[in-house]
Design brief:
Elements lengths: L11 H39 L11 E3 L2 E2 L5 H16 L2 E6 L2 E6 L5 E3 L2 H10 L6 H13 L2 E3 L3 E3 L1 H12 L10 E5 L2 E5 L4 E4 L1 H14 L6 E4 L2 E4 L5 H4 L4 E9 L5 H12 L3 E2 L4 E3 H5 L10 E6 L2 E6 L3 H15 L2 E4 L26 E3 L6 E7 L4 E8 L7 E13 L2 E11 L3 E4 L5 E12 L2 E13 L3 E9 L3 H11 L4 H16 L4 H22 L1
Parallel strand pairs: 1-6, 3-11, 23-27
Antiparallel strand pairs: 1-2, 3-4, 5-7, 8-9, 10-12, 13-21, 14-20, 15-19, 16-17, 18-19, 20-21, 22-25, 24-27, 25-26
């Protein structure tokens, strides 16, 4: 058997070192336990500290912008913000545009605070998230310094735009288009001028930037963004206008309607259309009011010729229509009159009526066109269209009106109980109805090369009313004429008038007249049945 090895004996120094090591371990463990106890105690104190405030309440000394929301719930904070926004709304904003300025309240501009829900949630959450140590640190910091949560302001785009345009509109210096006039010496061009106006969209953005970066919650002043406005028409555009592209004239006639023709021509005279632009004669000549220079004149309404403000304006549009045809511009909208007119042939008219009919055409040339309209010293309404001629000199166009069908006007006899028997007066203008079409005929070197239909038009026949007097002290005489009116037969009506007058002059013939009246009534019934 092997002998067991004897454990070597420790020296005194070794044993001393061992004892010191054990003592240090015991002391270290005790210190650690003490430290943990202290930490636990501190943790408990801080835990209690951070839970002094309810999770749904905002800690003290917290602001959203300028609004103190300390100790509030989210809903209470929203109400406080709303009240503060109402105060802000009463403050004025001065909008400057160069040397000029205008003022509006923030309420008028639609001032509002963005993401109020997010802001109040952020305020409630402060000091409520993360570890106890983090929350304690945040809450203790509030005792020394307030926390300000930055808000973001915005304007209601529609409200702000409307107010800015309204308030700064008078400050605008609009651009002036270059203009052109023609005289016996030729064309004279006047240069246009640039203008300035407030850029509404950019100005709204600038106000919002100011509110969010520099505003001190008091009355404010902001320089508006100015944009340069260039003329729509320049001298360069007009320099190409040298040639007459098409013209037409009609007799202006006489009476008050001439005033309306002159006014309509004035409003169209000088119009320049750039390539691709469209002109509405209705829009150009409205409103049809005395304030705009119009007077009462003859016009069509409900199948009758009546006196109406701006009556005759359709002769202006019709004369221009024919000039447009000869210039070969693109007609985009044209309507015939309800009844044919005397100043142009069928299908050569172009009616305008507010809310109902319009005459529109487009400049389909590659250069601008210029419209000249006036009434000359001979009482002729003239329209001339000028531009840059690009059509072949050997080519020409003509327009032929073709009547396809004609319908006679009708006559209707109507009782006039206010006029004596024997009175017969016409009311209305006899105008025959028509269907017609317009041909465009193209010639080259005087020879016809093509023919096409430009429009088809239908015109109603008018109804002439004949007012037949039936007033008499003798009822039987009145009845004779009334019954004859029912026949709508002129010969029979005149016969009844003769009999009625004889009855009035010879009252003793009552029985004979009554018998004839009965016969007339029977005949009228038969006649009406046949018509039906």
């Amino acid at each position: 058997m092997q002998k067991q090895r004897r454990r070597p004996r420790m020296s005194k120094k070794a044993r001393a070192r061992l004892r010191r090591r054990r003592r240090n371990i015991i002391l270290g463990g005790g210190a650690l336990l003490c430290a943990l106890a202290v930490l636990l105690f501190i943790y408990i104190l801080r835990y209690r500290y951070v839970h002094r405030v309810d999770d749904n309440m905002i800690c003290g000394n917290i602001y959203i912008g300028e609004t103190d929301v300390s100790g509030m719930t989210a809903d209470q904070a929203k109400k406080a913000i709303k009240k503060k926004m109402e105060e802000y709304g009463l403050l004025p904003l001065t909008m400057k545009a160069g040397e000029h300025s205008a003022e509006a309240t923030f309420q008028e501009l639609g001032l509002d605070m963005r993401d109020v829900d997010h802001l109040t949630d952020q305020a409630v959450a402060y000091g409520k998230k993360g570890s106890v140590w983090k929350r304690y640190s945040q809450m203790k910091a509030l005792e020394k310094e307030k926390l300000v949560i930055d808000e973001k302001f915005q304007l209601n785009a529609d409200k702000a735009a409307k107010v800015i345009e309204e308030k700064t509109g008078p400050l605008k210096t609009g651009a002036v288009d270059a203009s052109i006039v023609r005289s016996d010496e030729g064309f004279t061009i006047t240069d246009g001028a640039a203008g300035e106006s407030v850029d509404t969209t950019a100005s709204i953005q600038k106000i919002e930037t100011y509110l969010n970066d520099k505003w001190n919650y008091k009355a404010a002043s902001v320089e508006m963004v100015i944009e340069k406005e260039e003329p729509r028409i320049t001298r360069a555009d007009l320099e190409s206008i040298q040639d007459e592209l098409g013209s037409y004239s009609t007799d202006a006639g006489y009476g008050s309607r001439v005033t309306n023709l002159k006014r309509g021509a004035e409003l169209l005279n000088g119009t320049v259309l750039l390539p691709g632009e469209e002109l509405s004669v209705l829009e150009k000549t409205l409103p049809y009011t005395e304030e705009n220079g119009y007077v009462d004149g003859g016009a069509y309404a409900n199948g009758e010729v009546v006196q109406s403000i701006a009556g005759g304006i359709c002769q202006v549009s019709s004369t221009l229509y024919n000039a447009v045809l000869y210039a070969e511009l693109e007609v985009t909208q044209r309507s015939a009159h309800s009844m044919s007119v005397s100043y142009v042939k069928p299908s050569k008219d172009a009616a305008v009526a507010e809310g109902v009919k319009d005459f529109k055409f487009k400049n389909n040339y590659s250069a601008p066109i210029f419209i000249e309209g006036y009434i000359d010293d001979n009482g002729t309404l003239q329209f001339h269209i000028y531009g840059k001629e690009t059509r072949d000199a050997a080519r020409s166009v003509e327009y032929e009106s073709e009547v396809l069908e004609q319908v006679e006007y009708t006559t209707r006899y109507v009782e006039d109980s206010d006029s004596a028997i024997g009175s017969m007066n016409e009311k209305g203008t006899p105008i025959n109805g028509k269907t017609a079409r317009l041909w465009k005929v193209v010639y080259e070197n005087g020879n016809e090369v093509s023919r096409e239909v430009i429009n088809n038009s239908t015109y109603n026949a008018s109804e002439v009313k004949v007012l037949v007097g039936t007033r008499s002290d003798n009822p039987q005489a009145s009845k004779l004429v009334q019954d004859a009116i029912g026949s709508q037969n002129e010969e029979q009506i005149w016969g009844a008038i003769g009999e009625a007058q004889a009855l009035i002059n010879n009252p003793n013939s009552d029985e004979s007249a009554e018998s004839k009246a009965e016969n007339n009534t029977e005949n009228n019934g038969e006649g009406t049945g046949e018509e039906g």
